[in-house]
Amino acid sequence: MAAVTADRNLAGRKPGLERAVILLGPPGAGKGTQAQRIAQRYRLPHLSTGDMLRDHIQRDTDRGRRAKPLMERGELVPDEIVLSMVEERISQPDCDNGFVFDGFPRTLAQAEDLEQICRRHNFDYTIVLHMVVDPDLLMRRLTGRRICRAGGHIYNIFDRPAKVDGICDLDGSELIHRPDDTEPVIRGRLSAYETQTRPLVDYYKGQGLLIEVDAMADADAVTASIGKTLDKAEARQ
Ligand code: ADP
Question: Is residue 145 annotated as part of the catalytic site, yes or no?
Answer without folding.
Answer: yes
